[in-house]
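Q: What residues go here?
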């Protein structure tokens, strides 16, 4: 296992210590858990970014499949009719 030394502010260390104590684990274990969580979130964000072009293409494809000969009512007339009630 690799060793990592980092100078961190006392305030941050106190927060880590408090969090580790609340979870009944060592500060070292708490740091590892937080790093793993942060890296997992980053991986998930990368995967989501890669899915954007696919989702856009799927959206375009679905939009093209919609019927275009539908006559939609004029929203202004509908609002006016509703107000006249």
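A:
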């Amino acid at each position: 296992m690799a060793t990592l030394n980092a100078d961190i502010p006392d305030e941050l260390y106190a927060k880590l210590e408090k969090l580790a104590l609340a979870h009944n684990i060592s500060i070292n274990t708490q740091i590892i858990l937080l790093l793993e969580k942060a890296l997992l979130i980053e991986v998930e964000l990368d995967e989501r970014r890669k899915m954007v072009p696919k989702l856009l293409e799927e959206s375009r494809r679905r939009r093209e499949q919609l019927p275009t000969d539908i006559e939609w009512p004029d929203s202004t007339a509908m609002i006016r009719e509703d107000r006249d009630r």
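A: Context that may help when evaluating the design: The mean pLDDT is 90. Residues 27-65 form the longest helix (39 residues).
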